[in-house]
Automatic annotation (TrEMBL):
<feature type="domain" description="Acyl-CoA dehydrogenase/oxidase C-terminal">
    <location>
        <begin position="83"/>
        <end position="230"/>
    </location>
</feature>
<dbReference type="InterPro" id="IPR036250">
    <property type="entry name" value="AcylCo_DH-like_C"/>
</dbReference>
<protein>
    <submittedName>
        <fullName>Acyl-CoA dehydrogenase family member 11</fullName>
    </submittedName>
</protein>
<comment type="similarity">
    <text>Belongs to the acyl-CoA dehydrogenase family.</text>
</comment>
<dbReference type="GO" id="GO:0005739">
    <property type="term" value="C:mitochondrion"/>
</dbReference>
<dbReference type="InterPro" id="IPR050741">
    <property type="entry name" value="Acyl-CoA_dehydrogenase"/>
</dbReference>
<keyword id="KW-0274">FAD</keyword>
<dbReference type="GO" id="GO:0003995">
    <property type="term" value="F:acyl-CoA dehydrogenase activity"/>
</dbReference>
<dbReference type="InterPro" id="IPR046373">
    <property type="entry name" value="Acyl-CoA_Oxase/DH_mid-dom_sf"/>
</dbReference>
<keyword id="KW-0285">Flavoprotein</keyword>
<dbReference type="InterPro" id="IPR009100">
    <property type="entry name" value="AcylCoA_DH/oxidase_NM_dom_sf"/>
</dbReference>
<keyword id="KW-0560">Oxidoreductase</keyword>
<dbReference type="GO" id="GO:0033539">
    <property type="term" value="P:fatty acid beta-oxidation using acyl-CoA dehydrogenase"/>
</dbReference>
<dbReference type="InterPro" id="IPR009075">
    <property type="entry name" value="AcylCo_DH/oxidase_C"/>
</dbReference>
<dbReference type="Pfam" id="PF00441">
    <property type="entry name" value="Acyl-CoA_dh_1"/>
</dbReference>
Length: 245
């Protein structure tokens, strides 16, 4: 293998880390192969940990840049079989995306709590911030969005538990889009209420926003999920129409 990879887990830099999984990107689906590569293999060089919006990437799961220069490993290091790398990745992406959404709901709850604390104590133009209608509406809309997203997350989790990963594809894609957008919006409202302090390191909101915004890209960008949702919805509508005939 000769390549540069910038999406490996932060555990790569742990002093006890010895082996990393690497996926060979050679086209679509059946052409991907997952291989175990010992870190001490000649040609493997750890370059640097990555950052997101200038923040430590550890909060996002952590990613590392690694160079592979003519790295050779035995064929027995292939996981599950040649061409099965996509299957391995997809097997964890469904539950993994759901975990992202669960964390997004918790993050939004924390952001709303901070927003309300600031709005209740800070004054502007002779009254508390929450007494200004625009801020009061932000609080209400954030609560509505959080509850909606939590229920959609529970629905996706229930479908995954009872029907399996494949049957829950649409529900997981829906919540993946909704949760990232919701968390970004709630944190953004909190930042606006805090003003300049909200984008400083004196409060956790800047780091929270970096995490929330990253969710709209991690494990598949929103646009890919939206296209998948549309195709799955059209499939379901077609099946319903055929069932009525």
């Amino acid at each position: 293998m000769t390549s540069t990879i910038q999406a490996l887990t932060r555990e790569t830099e742990h002093p006890k880390a010895e082996v990393i999984p690497v996926r060979d990107w050679l086209g679509r689906h059946g052409l991907h192969t997952m291989i175990l590569v010992p870190l001490k293999t000649p040609g493997v060089k750890k370059i640097r940990p990555l950052t997101v919006f200038g923040q430590d990437d550890a909060i996002h799961g952590g990613h590392f840049e690694i160079h592979f220069d003519n790295v050779r490993v035995p064929a027995s290091n292939i996981l599950l079989g040649e061409g099965r790398g996509f299957d391995i990745s997809q097997g964890r992406l469904g539950p993994g995306r759901l975990h992202h959404c669960m964390r997004a709901v918790g993050l939004a709850e924390w952001a709303l709590e901070l927003l309300c604390q600031r709005a209740a104590h800070r004054q502007a133009f002779g009254k508390r911030l929450y007494q200004h209608e625009v801020v009061a509406h932000w609080i209400a809309e954030c609560r509505i969005a959080i509850v909606q997203t939590r229920l959609l997350t529970l629905h996706a989790a229930y479908t995954l538990d009872t029907q399996g990963n494949k049957a829950a594809r649409k529900q997981i894609a829906m919540i993946k889009v909704a949760a990232g957008r919701m968390a970004s919006n709630v944190v953004d409202c909190a930042i606006q209420v805090y003003g300049g302090a909200g984008v400083s390191d004196d409060f956790p909101l800047a780091e929270m926003y970096a995490y929330a915004r990253t969710l709209r890209i991690a494990d598949g960008p929103d646009e890919v999920h939206l296209s998948s949702i549309a195709l799955l919805e059209l499939r379901d509508q077609r099946r319903r129409a055929q069932a009525k005939l």
